[in-house]
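task queued by scheduler; priority normal; single chain, no ligands, no partner chains; default sampling; output format set to structure tokens
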Amino acid sequence: MSNNLNEDDPADPTTARVAVLGNPNTGKSTLFNALTGIRQQTGNYPGVTVEKRTGLVKIGPTYFELTDLPGTYSLAPRSPDEMLTVNVLLGEHPAEEKPDLILCVVDANNLERNLFLVSQILDLHQPMIIAVNMTDIATRNGIEIELEALQKLLGVPVVGIQAKRRVGFDALKSAMSSAISKSPDIEHDPFSDELKQRIVRLKAACPDDCQLKRFAVTRMLFDTDGFMTDQLKSQVDEKVLATLKTEQAQMQSEGHSIAESESHARYNWITKHLDSFVKRAAPAHQTTLTDRLDAWLTHPFWGLLFAGLTMVILFQLVFWAAEPASNLIDGFNGALATAVNSIVPEGTLNSLLIDGLINGVGSVLIFLPQILLLFFILAILEDTGYLSRAAFLLDKYLSRIGLSGITLFPLLSSFACAIPGIMATRVIKDRRERLITMLIAPLMSCSARLPVYVLLIAAFVPSKSYLGGLIGLQGLTMFGMYMVGIITAVAVAWVLRKTILKTGTSSFVLELPTYKLPSLRNVWQRMFDGGWAFVRDAGTMIVVVTILVWAAAYFPQNNESLLPPPLKNDAALIAANQTTLDSLDGSETSTDVAQLEEQVSLAQNRLDAYQLEHSYLGRTGKLIEPMVKPLGWDWRIGSAAIASFPAREVIVSTMGVIFGLGADTDEESDSLKSSLASATWEGTDRPLFTLPVALSIMVFFALCAQCVSTLAVIQRETNSYRWPIFTFAYMTILAYVAAFLTFQISDKLL
């Protein structure tokens, strides 16, 4: 157990490990948050994309360490992530100890479906508690559950709770205290005599020293193509495999589906006993509020219209509502930089603190409002039950490229920023589908690309209009840049599904939960966890890379004695005018002061441009010039592209420095537009920037991975450096090829 969960972290002898398990949408995470409060931490299981959440709750003298396992419908794993859950329960995960207690959360409104998982967990014959959640909603729906009868049937403690309102928690905690190390009172066996005999024969084939338990043997018999079967087959000898093959062949010869045999047996067992503990006060077909809402929200037309409006609102909120907070953070960073500048003399330390550290931390925090807002909205949509409906409606369309409907929300939010979009992929349960979504999310044209588009379109795309002024060429070009990313993302998703992330037909199994009010505590916890994870994990890499890029642009410093004569004059002018400015007594006119400050600024900009050209960054730009020349670029554009690696929009300010206008230049600057339009290839009169060159740059930035923040988040979410490296490689190659074709073709046509 981690020692930083709480300052009162107990010693191991007084700590019990509890695995919290259940179907999706049962309120499992709400219960986990309510029990653990702030005593929790998050991270990833080693080697997988599954998030690990642990927390502490003290009951009497004992501390219980709860682990919130991923929601699942079955213990028949179909992916490595689902296999992880089973390994944790069995105590076979190398980084996890076997739990002392399993806390299974079930939905009182869908007990028949939930008891399938309960039935499988009982096969483990481990200490277990059933928490029947949302009993209040069940009562309103005319469903009454006799908990004592259910407890007698299962042989394990059963407690009714309302996790959102914290009702039944005292009884639950009492049951947890008494259930530790206490196995079920009865031997659970839902199978027919025929299936029982097959399991017995398969178990008997195992040698005496075989460690396979009845649960494992059962899984090996029924999970013909599951991950657990592959794992188990490697642990047994040829005799066991031969017996397994014989038993499965006999089942098929008798006309039985191996996979369905287990489902039929368990559901028959559930149906047989259901009436003994579930009483319905109203007819089962009575129309509920959920039914009435679904008539509209899952309608083929009105449902899609509402989903579309929801996505538009989501996009606008993430993009616009977070702007004031982002501006506030940006203003604070500016004020902090000003304060540091007034305290620390100009030089290396000053530049490191302001241009490296403060800007690096600022580039992390500037995304935080968007991330917090996105997780807030997604948590509300999921808790209310609407997210599942929207995914259901959109699945038909996204399935054509191998994705499911749930992927649209992360992709949509990526238009604002890919960072929260990638973090939003946590709502996607399928590992491969989640990976594909993360890998294509950076192709959505985020807000950081907008300054590049605005600058180059305004400077080089003619201001022409069509259809009586309704459609403008500049607007069409902007739309085209967004479409470049969307079309490429669709193509990449299709290729990934057919190649490195190849799978069969995507099975989109989705249970539509009842509508309910969201738990504000749960919403807040998810928002906080998502924001803190970004700052803690991705932020470190972002700051480091920002400082490295700063160092590349700052070093080596100019030797004033080696400066060309015009720049020596600039250095002397700066020193003289700065001395004059420092000696002003307030009697001077504002015009005189402004003229002096402007002279200093212009001279400093020319020195900065020279410094950047001869820095390691500038030298690298000249080194790669032969590589970028086929794109229509020279070393100046190449250097600006390298400098924009921490964030795409940095290319604008870098160009401002290169062309002697200063780092404060933005995309709206007329001076920068004029400088770009008048720039020529060094030593010639040939224009550097033309419409084909502008299109080449925009296409490159529409497809490239020029954002270390995005790559850092991919690393954090996948817990691997493999996928951010892959993302950077494939996007860079795509961007280069597309920019090359764009320039070469447009240069000949325009």
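post-processing summary
- The chain is about 60% helix and 5% strand.
- The first strand starts at residue 15 and ends at 22.
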